[in-house]
Each structure stands twice: as C-alpha cells, then as structure tokens.
C-alpha cells in the first residue's frame, strides 16, 4: 500500500491510539472500528477521549492527586470533564459549543464590517487571532483604553497582512514603529486592531455577548463540580488542568482562575494549571499510556474484533 511506504509502518504489527470526542455517535465509532481493523488491519487499537489522555498525564506527574478537572478548549468546542481515580465522571461532563473556529469566524466578521473584506481568508485571520488576541483581566477598563486616541490607546496594534510574495507570513508591527497619524509610506496592507484583540477571546467566558445562549467556561466548571458529591468538590477546584489551543491566549489562565475564585465558596482553594505545551498535553499522555504496563489490557486486538465485532470495542472503550 502507498500509505505503508510513505510512513514506513507495517500496520499488522502496530498498535494505534486514536482520540475521539466525548459522546461520539455510535455510527461514527463503528465506522472507525472498521477503518482501523478492516481497512488498515492494525494489530490492536485503543479509542479514547483526548481528555482521558490529559488526565492520565496529569495523574502520572501528580501521583498524590486523586481528582482533576480537564478543560479542553479546542477548534470546534470546549469540554469540561472531571476525572476521579483516573476514571471520567460521565454525568458531570459539560460541553460548550464555542471553540477556536467560532472565534476566528467572529474576528473575520468584525474586520470585514469595519475595515477590509476578509471572509474568504480564514487561514490568515486565524493567524491574526493567534498573534494579537489576548484575554482581558479588566474588560471595561480595556474598552476605555481601546477608545482613546493616538498613543494613549495602548491596546491598538497594527498587523501587516501577508502578500505571499515578499511577506510570506503576517506579523504585528512593533509599538515603536506604529504611525498614529497619516499613512504608512510602505505598500504594506495593514489591519488596525483595538478592542477586537480582547473582545474575541471574551466569547470563551461570555458567549452570550454575541447571542450564543451557553455558559462560559468558569460557569460550566462550577456547574460540573456542583453536580458531583460534595466531599469531592474541593479536589476538583484545586486541580483544574487547561488543554487545547485556546488556552494559549495571553492572560487566559489568570482570568479563569480569578473568575473561578469569585464563583467558588471562599473556604475552598482554587488552582488552575497551564502545562508548558497545552496543545500536545494529551498526545504526551498517550505516549505515557502506551508505555503503561496495563496498556495491553486496554486495547482491542484485531483477532478479538474479527471474532466478536463492534461489541468487544463497546466493552473495552469507555467512551
């Protein structure tokens, strides 16, 4: 097969760990089983949630902890998932339909309305979002600054768009090089961004600001924890783990911890942990899991699948 030669792997001798969202449709799970075992014929497979891999990573590096709350905020949505003794508490998982895709689309709409039509430039505007957006610690105060004129507006940034000939990748102009009156002499195409920088990530905390009737992340965490037995609740507030690309916005961890502190009873400790690489945190958890002595007990072997079909996967994979 072409795939075999390309990645130099013999699937028949290979075990695969593949992630899927919480509460995935049964039809999709069965299709995935067929692809893994019938089309590619992997020796064994483990289907698991990314949050479970993140929890495994956290418990591996913090062996004294019994509970953790994984906040996984990625491209399509945000999941709040509590884990106790390495098992997920299914009934308390919460999903918010706000992710990086929605933020990028909202930024495209704002820029297209105010400055330049960019509705077809998803990749470029996604890069703009990652380069200049941040989470405000004092939203209304930042709003006042963003309305100031000239150099008093410390929020304002100029972003140079790529032309894909001399400028391959867009970049933010250094503050000292910004022109506050008149135009730039160069032929660069500039986006001037002010309150967009913090108003877009604000949707993660208050989706209702743009008419999405959902909880923000701090509220969803509290909603999840309060559905758990009371004696367990302090352990979850003390071990909130952030994963996913949206957690890379500057100020995200601090703002979440501050908002949680305001919502949680004063006598309970609150601690929010941002890993060094939150995007790869689940992958690193999968790497640790693959070296776990119990790994062989968790997977489904191809022979078992061929003999028992999808039901063996339902039994083994607690998705």
UniProtKB/TrEMBL annotation:
InterPro entries: Actin, ATPase_NBD. GO terms for cellular component: cytoplasm; nucleus. It is found in: Cytoplasm. Keywords: Cytoplasm. CDD domains: ASKHA_NBD_Arp6. Pfam families: Actin. Belongs to the actin family. ARP6 subfamily. This is Actin related protein 6.
